[in-house]
Predict the 3D structure of the following.
Amino acid sequence: MSRKIGVIGGGFGGLSAAIRLAKLGFNVDLFEQNETVGGKANSISLDGFRFDTGPSLLTMPFVLNELFDFVDEEINDYIQLQSLDILCKYFYSDGLTVNAYSDRGKLINEFSTKFGESEKLIEKYLNYSKQIYDLTAELFLFKSFSEISTFLNLSALKTLLQINKLDTFRTMHVANESFFNNKKAIQLFDRYATYNGSNPYLAPATLNIIQHVEYNLGAFIAKKGIYSISLALESIAKNVGVNIYKSSKVEQILHEKKRVDGLVINENVKKYHAIISNSDVNNTYKNLLGDNSSKSAIKYSKLQPSSSAIVFYWGVKGNYDNLEIHNILFSDDYQNEFDEIFTKKSIPSDPTIYIYVSSKFNSEDAPPNSENWFVMINAPFNSGQEWKIEIEKLREIIIRKIERQLGISLRENIVCESILNPLKIESKTSSMYGSLYGISSNNKYAAFLRQRNRSKEYKGLYFCGGSAHPGGGIPLVLLSGKITAELVEKDFK
Ligand SMILES: Cc1cc2nc3c(=O)[nH]c(=O)nc-3n(C[C@H](O)[C@H](O)[C@H](O)COP(=O)(O)OP(=O)(O)OC[C@H]3O[C@@H](n4cnc5c(N)ncnc54)[C@H](O)[C@@H]3O)c2cc1C
């Protein structure tokens, strides 16, 4: 008899685990509370404009390719991934603009010319980032922390013996400052802390690995938007036999004597041999298991969530040639911005603004002579702020800043609008406090503190997704699903 697995949540993590287990012969049911799968990677349509709701950039595409290979599917039949000539255009308040090219030679030349740093130094920095990746990726990203064998092998030993090269003891900012003199260059490289919702002035320099992921391994868009990846995963899940139940919120995980054995959905009980939660770890303990007091429930509730975001989805009249697909308008005082987000827990007074315009590569995303602007700022996780009032003020600040820096009229050209805030992120995806990436990496032990993929507390319970190992962001949650599926396979062989 094939083993029955219940998966809670159809984010990338849950889909990745479900697809693999179905392919391995398990009988998999996946429950998604929303009408569509994809979780944070969703889509909205407004007055002829379409927007990706969450992620806009895909890194480590080989992780996605491997999932399609695993189920003998051809990825190009579903998604057209495309690398970009300019990964991101950076705007500084004094008028300087810097293009981050995907071509290594052009990138180094641009950074060197614009920042006045030597080409040799930039090369050295990219090699430093690569070295951290080469030493850490296998152990920290691709393997389960639930298995002792992960740590007891030659390659892990090699990593641990070279701990000084992992740059764990400095912060990202201190490390970046040790390379560069130019404050703008330091700010640009510090920015990568936000790729997992952290603060570069606190996060360990090991996270400077992210620059290698983007500049050396490449960053991609999907021709029909990131949401096309969600749809593709749904299709291949169905092809391998995953039963997907949408608009089906799991209300409870049933357990007896610390063994889970079923789910309650719309008051119906369904029995399973194992349960995988792609829901936020804290939500799983508190609301699905009804557990506020076990060691794990207490431990995870005390960890600092990652940052959240406020996103304005604006349909904008006109075409703006000075914008690329991905753009960053930096703040003047980056340290203060992170201090406001993580210490004061307030919306930054001078926020760094990210603008993503998918209609620049997919004209179907906006009506003629218009663009779809996804305008995002990093924000604190929800701790009861007056979001409505704060967001009204923020909207003004952002519009003025964009108009000033780009030299355009924006206000009267916004023809439609929708806004995402931390409360909505929490209510839509059950991410506690609206955090984007699970827990923050604002201390050097964060990688070890995340929820392991196999529960120690509850037999038969597994976790995948941004709040579990190895962390948030598309490639990592896909890997999280992979690691979890491998554990389930091993346990139920
Ligand atoms: C605005 C924004 C921008 C981002 N930008 C990027 C980016 O550019 N690149 C990148 O790599 N990452 C980015 N991220 C992060 C990335 O989106 C996430 O790390 C990733 O998508 C999370 O996947 P997940 O599987 O962990 O969870 P989620 O996407 O949160 O999915 C969890 C799913 O579980 C469902 N669920 C939860 N509880 C229940 C329940 N009780 N019953 C049924 N269903 C339930 C939820 O509805 C949801 O669909 C961004 C995120 C946001 C919000």
Notes: The mean pLDDT is 95. Residues 8-14, 31-34, 39-41, 54-57, 249-250, 278-279, 309, 311, 376, 425, 429-431, 436-437, 465-466, 472-474, 477 surround flavin-adenine dinucleotide (CB under 6 Å). The longest strand covers residues 308-317. The chain has three domains: 4-39+58-81+224-304+441-492, 105-221, 305-429.
